[in-house]
Amino acid sequence: MNLRLRLLALYPEQMNIYADRGNLLFLRRRCEWRGIGFELVRAGIGERFDPETADLIYIGGGQDRDQLLVAEDMRKTKREAIARAVEAETVLLAVCGGYQLLGHSYQLADRTVAGLGIADLETVRSNDARLIGNVAIELPASDRPADGARVLAGFENHGGRTRLGADAEPLGRVLRGHGNNGSDGFEGVRLKNLFGTYLHGPLLPKNAWFADYLIGLSLARQNGGKPLRPTPLDDRIEAAAHACARAAAGLDR
Predict the structure, then answer these.
(1) Catalytic site residue 178?
(2) Which member of 31, 96, 178, 242 is catalytic?
(3) Catalytic, out of 158, 178, 200, 242
(4) Which residues touch 120 (CB under 8 Å, ≥6 apart)?
(5) pLDDT of residue 16
C-alpha cells in the first residue's frame, strides 16, 4: 500500500509562536522514517483551499496583531472549507491562537473578535494573571493507542480563558497546570477529528505517541476507513523527551 499524508498548514508565517512549526517537521519525520509519503501545502492570507486535498490540517498560534489579521482573512477565505473538512472528519490540529479562532469569539484587549464558530466555545480576557507554565492532561480512553499512552505534556501561556459550550467536549482532563481557564479542570476541545489545545512546546515532539495517533487517523481513508496503526519506531529519544515534559509538569516525581 502506497500511503501518502497530505498536510495543509494554515498561515504558517503568521501563526508560529513558541516554535510550534516543529509540529510540522515532526510529522514529516515520523512519516518519512516509515516510508510514508509526505506532502506539505501552505495556505496563507487571501488563499483558498479544497478541503478534499488535505488529510491533516494544522493551525498554530500567533501574536495578537497577526492573529487579528488571520481571523479576518480566515472568516472570508477559509471558514467554509474548514467547516467542510471537520464535518468530513478530516484531522485538524489547532494550537493556542488557532484553537481560539475555532470558537464563536475571543477577546483581544477590549475588543471582541468573531471566530469561525465551528467549535462551541468562546474565549474571554481576565484581569487575573496569565495562565503560564508546564501542563499535563489525561485524554479519555477512546483516544488511547494500544500501548495505553494517555498523557499529553507541554507548556501553556495564554491570557484568555476558554469556556466550552454544551455541544463541546474537552480534549482532556487537567492533571497539572491550568488548562482552558484555570478553574473547570478541562483542557482543549475535541470535535470529531478536530483537536484544539493550548499545549505548546512544540506539542508533538514531546508526545510522539499522539503524533502517531494523528497520523493513523489522517490515513484512515487510505486504509479502508480504519485508523492506521503506524509501524513502531525506535523512540528512546522521544520517550525521554516525553518523560522530561511530564516531570517538568510535576508528574512522575
Answers:
(1) no
(2) 96
(3) 200
(4) 103, 104, 164, 165, 166, 167, 168
(5) 87
